[in-house]
Amino acid sequence: MKTGKQTNMKFELADLLIQLKHYNKAERVLLQVSQDDGGELESAMNETRRLLLLASLHEQTGRHADQLDALTQARDTQARVLKRIHVEQPDAVVDQKALAASICCKMAKHCQIHENDIQQAIKYHKEALIYDETDSKIMLDLAKLFISSGDLDACQQYCMQVLRTSNNNEDQASMMMADVMFNKNQYNDAIYHYDQLLKARPDHYEALARLIGLLHRRGQLRDAPRYLELAKVKVGEGKVDMDAGYQYCKGLYEWYCGKTRSAVEMFNMARCDSEWNEKAVENMIRICLNPDKSTLGGEAFESLQGSGENDNSAISTAERLIKEFKSSDSLKVQVLENLVLIATKNKTNIERALSSFVNMGQTKKDYVPAIVGMAVAYVMLKQTPKARNQLKRVAKMQWTSEEADEFEHAWLLLADIYIQASKYDMATELLKKCLEHNKSCCKAYEYTGFIYEKQMSYKDAATHYEMAWEYSNQSDPVIGYKLAFNYLKAKRNADAIDIAHKVLATNPNYPRMKKEILDKARATIRV
Q1: Is 437 in contact with 463 (CB distance < 8 Å)?
Q2: Of all residues in the chain, what percent carry a pLDDT higher than 70?
Q3: CA–CA separation, 117 vs 212, rounded Å?
Q4: What are the sequence ranges of the domains in the chain?
Q5: Any residues with CB less than 8 A from the CB of 70 and at least 6 apart, and which?
């Protein structure tokens, strides 16, 4: 090592030190590597390797600007390598082109995650394809970026290219084609792509989970059990209870049906598997924070259903789960940590969460989860105008399937704010957007029914409460009461009695149901 000639050993030492998190020692080793060892080509190849190790070090230590600088230098150095490699080492051309492509992909990933610069990420991925135009993974990464930027035709073009030219990643391309169809509002075509894939591979759980989500959004969740049954037959009756992928998909179905207890049980089994741990734990945290799928931060219904006291046991469970939650997306972890803080309803915790969301928004511009998180915190701190301004930003953005839940939350919360201000027309437009993208959005139907009820249009209110009651799996007593009340007002007394009985069957002591609905409806019928 002292001779300064054993460059390769220095690189291996630096790599080991990085893995051991001895970052200062690793950086010193890399800075000591001489760029003059060997010939000009070998020196350039070593410099590329050194810069890539430096970039990895900077990434792990959070020095993202230095990381991009190292990657940029590595890309330029590798370009010099490629100019000479054809003549001096023709057998190494393919490997060196692959290395150049991987550098471009790293730069694209950096721009996407740390700068939220989708266009620059697209540019780097296109540059990577110059070095390897048949790489299906790069094409799929490009397709994902195009779908995020709203360029659905470009996304579809790359997916078709993968399907035509590659035997690998066909399933991923098919699923992305389904996402394109979904984003184009061609829902039947999207379902068709998943249906074809699952007929060939019933136990393709990633596709099954996406299909269940799509069926939920289209108001066709009743079709999901058929696909779960096909998966069960494929895996075998005795083995399916131990299959984490199946348990995750079944948990998703149960959650959408409003059966949160059984959903948590399914996700709890799925989280024991490394492949499904992240998604399962995330869903468990979200259920703990919002088991009844209320509008976090919403206050329009407070006078009717109370302020919603904290469920301390659920929050404690969420706090425990967040400690074990692991994700390559550090921002997602921060979002969930902040939502747990907000759920405590402690002012100091909410202010901490708000500060974190503001910092996230500065790090990644137009990051919808952070903007919605800020809005929720502002509402909880009684700073509604600031919340409204943040939510208006989201309302102007291009909807994407990746952040569909966050967009829906933003629209519902903004509608809630408008309803409190009696701006019913503005609220209604937002609620229509919710239902356009999610026909099963129980809260959108409930808010719309509430608006009609305020306007004393009880027949229309009842129609929307019917939908809310249906999509809540007839399990929410608050919606049941509202539906029965509006049936009574619309002189549908028999229907009011029927709903009252259903609510009282599961909630026998539900306040006001017997006296204000059941007794009045019966008295009216007798008269």
Answers
A1: no
A2: 96
A3: 31
A4: 1-133, 294-430, 439-527
A5: 51, 52, 54, 55, 58
Indicate the burial class of 422 (C-beta count within 10 angstroms; 0-12, 13-18, 19 or more). Answer: exposed
pLDDT tens for 466-500 read 999 999 999 899 999 999 999 999 999 999 999 99
CA distances to 60, 128, 504, 526 from 141, in Å: 23, 11, 52, 68
For the record, the structure tokens of 312 come out as 């301390």
- Judge whether 43 and 35 are in contact, CB under 8 Å: yes
Q: In the numeric block, which tokens belong to residue 526?
A: 């007798």
Q: How does pLDDT run across 34-91, given as a tens digit for each residue?
A: 655 556 888 899 999 999 999 999 999 989 999 999 999 999 999 999 999 888 898 9
439-527 has the same fold as 1-133: yes
Written out in words, the top-level CATH class of the domain with range 294-430 is mainly alpha
> pLDDT at position 1, please?
43
Give residue 225's pLDDT. 96
- How far apart (Å, rounded) are the C-alpha atoms in residues 221 and 29? 58
Tokens read off for 270: 């799925």
The gap from C-alpha 63 to its chain's centroid, in whole angstroms, comes to 26
Q: How far apart are CA 282 and CA 322, in angstroms?
A: 8
Class of domain 1-133: mainly alpha
C-alpha atoms less than 13 angstroms from C-alpha of 272 in its C-beta half-sphere: 11
Give per-residue burial for 477-504: e unless 16+ CB within 10 Å, then b: bbbbbbbbbbbbbbebbebbbebbebbb
Q: Can you tell me the distance from the alpha carbon of 488 to that of 227, in angstroms, rounded to the nearest whole number?
A: 40
Give helix then strand counts, H and E, for the chain. Answer: 28, 0
Q: How confident is the model at residue 517 (pLDDT cuts 50, 70, 90)?
A: very high
Cα 420 from chain centroid (whole Å) = 29
Return d(Cα 253, Cα 232) in angstroms, integer.
14
Is residue 314 pLDDT above 50, yes or no?
Answer: yes
Q: For the chain, how big is the Rg over CA atoms in Å? A: 28
DSSP track, 438-456: -TT-HHHHHHHHHHHHHTT
Q: Among 1.25.40.10, 3.40.50.300, 3.40.605.10, 1.10.260.40, name the CATH number for the domain at 439-527.
A: 1.25.40.10
